[in-house]
Amino acid sequence: MKNITSPASRLLAGLFMFVLLFTAACGAKEGTVESVNQLYGTDSKTWKTDKEMNAAGDKVAQTDAMDDQRVTFYANGQYNMMSGAQTMNGKYTFDQGAKTITMMPDGAGQSNTFTVVTLTDDKLTLKGTDGSELRLERE
C-alpha cells in the first residue's frame, strides 16, 4: 500500500509538534526549586501576588488589597511585606534541601514555615501547612 502524504498533513503534523514542544518547554520550570539567589536576586527582589489557591485547589478571588500585596526578600535574610498602607518586616531562612522558607515577623513570637513548590527567576509558589498555595511572580 502506498503512503500518500499531502503538504497540508505534513504542515499539520509539524504544527502539532511545535505546540507540543512549546508546551513542554513552558511547563518545565513548574515545580522546580532553584537556588536561594533566585529568591532575592543580587541584593533584593520584589514579588507580587499572581494567584492564590485554597487547600482544595480552587482559585481564591483576588481583592484589590491582595493585588497590591508585595513581598521583598533581601540577601541579608530580611524581608518586607506591603499591602496598601500596611507593612511588616522580619527575617527569613531558606532551606534548599527541605525546600522550605521560614518567616519570622519582627516582634512576633511565632514564625511561619512554607513549602517552596516553585522557585525560579520569575516564579515563586509557597504552600502553607493547610495546603493553600500562594503563587507569586517577579515584579
From TrEMBL:
<dbReference type="InterPro" id="IPR024311">
    <property type="entry name" value="Lipocalin-like"/>
</dbReference>
<feature type="signal peptide">
    <location>
        <begin position="1"/>
        <end position="28"/>
    </location>
</feature>
<dbReference type="Pfam" id="PF13648">
    <property type="entry name" value="Lipocalin_4"/>
</dbReference>
<feature type="domain" description="Lipocalin-like">
    <location>
        <begin position="45"/>
        <end position="126"/>
    </location>
</feature>
<keyword id="KW-0732">Signal</keyword>
<protein>
    <recommendedName>
        <fullName>Lipocalin-like domain-containing protein</fullName>
    </recommendedName>
</protein>
